[in-house]
Amino acid sequence: MSENKLHVIDLHKRYGGHEVLKGVSLQARAGDVISIIGSSGSGKSTFLRCINFLEKPSEGAIIVNGQNINLVRDKDGQLKVADKKSATLVAYPPDDGVSAL
Question: Which one, out of 26, 32, 37, 93, has a CA that is 20 to 30 A from the CA of 99?
Answer without folding.
Answer: 26
